[in-house]
Design brief:
homodimer; 339 residues; mainly alpha
């Protein structure tokens, strides 16, 4: 369905979007099959090297199954959230100046900044189209699917805006960082679960628990992703070593370390006040300082606690045993608890 | 309704969008009332200096009235097309590097490129939300309103993509230029008329004639706008003199002049092969060469012919006399035939 939708785009948009999604190479030729099939059911649960791949469509389909829905009615929402996710990646890569994603050059480095902005716009509009067309049978008394997705998009944009602003500020606290993650990351995961549950015509209390499961899972995912942004293996993450430190990103471990009361934190604050550290040795020193404040351990505990909160909501949603097990597997995969 | 919708955005997006729309100044304070009220009924038909202002919502409301619809049911579509128009302006200004719009610094020059991209994204998503929520009573058998708007957005993006590509090419013909204008400009005007007519539950043949009226009007508008991009008075257009020549934009007069068979055209082609003309005197010479090929007159005739085509569709749509008169006035305003 995702493929069909993207194939409907004008050629100029399809080429850039298809490259970004891993379907084509830069010349528009089909890429290696391994590089990026996007059928959510086949790829979401395999130990993909591309973190986050098709997580959102899988959440939609499983949340639908959790309330007894059928996959067919959840497919438009599954495609729509994946399109929104990729819209945001295309634009974020332009704003953040990131040159690598999923082990390949980012779209803007290949096609130019303007083409990446336009392709992102095309995916956002397409997401709304697919969702509006696919949910016309929804009851007119409840919230509209496009309204739910649009609210998540607005949060996501607000979160990206905060993320960019944080890079210029030295005094970002862990609380602000969490609110940013709730907006930038968790809102779309919550939306995926809510749309899935609503497409399966779930009772309101189940919709709410599944949405809250998605929201907590999103925060846990972001904490883990932030840990990997400093201590992750480039061969696994597909990003350069210490990438989040290079950009002065105010990720969870950084904000926790900066707020700590210790000699390491003091040296860290000094370093963050100065010009950016450039060399690999400087970055390693910053990473070690953050670890010395205890921020790494704190984040690991936080990820565990928020994941546990997510799983409480999952249990309360009362999904059939097999679906609950699949959602637990997915949650473990997202938070790297599966290895 | 537009104001209410934009007020619902997160603060970070509202600030930039409200500045762009002329409601706030750069500090977020209310701007002069004169600078940009956006109620379509009050401002569309006044001789605003800001060309194109609220044209699209006025088309929605008048197309609805043309088939006997009531304004209330057309309001969501009116707000949605204006939001999409402003989304595209925010992003186009970033891509084109334009520093002035509506006699004010463009949003990206005030808030930065990233903030303008995010605010554009927010308006696009909001447009779909407003339209989806406001058209839930539409029959499920016809096309969905969001689907119609999204198709127009895809054309608009494809047109902007072609426009950017044309700046790098010397061999753009008038035919390509027209197809680009049909995509970049006419698609949204056609969409405005179609959504208005459908919100008024017009018969299919009326919907089609009103849509084709909007499409032809869009092409006529673009031809006139291209003439103003070379020969317009900066005090009236709000853009620098010869602005389209500075950027090597392949507008209607330029493509017609480049394709002509005359000494002026030959000198023009020579100049376009060289590096950009920089000085005001060079730009004046290029403008004079274009005029000497007859391209200016050709474009004026084309604008008249396409406008006449639009008015034929308007007559065929069989609107009540008063509404047809209003649409004629709007068409004259859009194509500068009212002064």
């Amino acid at each position: 369905m995702l493929r069909l939708a993207v194939d409907s785009l004008p050629g100029s948009m399809r080429r850039v979007a298809g490259y970004h999604l891993g379907w084509f190479d830069a010349a528009g030729e089909p890429a290696d099959a391994d590089a990026g099939t996007a059928d959510p059911r086949s790829s979401a649960l395999r130990p993909a090297q591309a973190a986050g791949k098709a997580i959102r469509p899988a959440l939609v389909l499983l949340a639908s199954a959790a309330v007894g829905g059928i996959a067919d009615s959840a497919m438009p929402a599954a495609a729509a959230v994946e399109l929104v996710h990729n819209f945001s990646l295309l634009h974020d890569d332009v704003m953040d100046g990131d040159e690598t994603r999923r082990h390949r050059p980012t779209a803007w480095t290949v096609f130019g900044r303007d083409a990446a902005i336009l392709a992102g716009d095309a995916l956002l509009s397409l997401a709304m189209d697919v969702l509006a067309t696919g949910t016309r049978g929804w009851s007119a008394s409840g919230p509209s699917a496009v309204g739910i997705l649009s609210a998540a998009v607005q949060k996501l944009l607000d979160g990206q805006s905060a993320d960019l602003e944080f890079e210029l500020r030295a005094d970002v606290g862990p609380g602000e960082c969490r609110r940013m993650a709730e907006a930038k990351t968790a809102a779309l995961l919550a939306c995926a679960c809510e749309l899935g549950a609503r497409s399966g015509r779930g009772a309101e209390f189940r919709v709410a628990h599944l949405r809250d499961f998605g929201a907590a899972l999103g925060v846990a995912f972001q904490v883990v992703d932030d840990l990997l942004g400093i201590w992750g293996d480039p061969a696994v993450t597909g990003k350069p070593a210490h990438s989040d430190l290079r950009s002065h990103k105010k990720s969870f471990p950084v904000t926790v370390a900066l707020a700590a009361d210790s000699p390491s934190s003091l040296e860290l604050r000094e370093r963050y006040r100065r010009v950016e550290p450039c060399g690999e040795r400087d970055l390693q020193r910053v990473a070690d300082l953050i670890e010395a404040t205890g921020a790494r351990t704190w984040c690991q505990h936080t990820a565990d606690a928020v994941l546990a909160e997510a799983l409480d909501h999952l249990v309360a949603a009362g999904a059939p045993g097999r679906v609950e097990a699949d959602l637990r597997t997915l949650a473990a995969f997202v938070t790297r608890r599966d290895r």
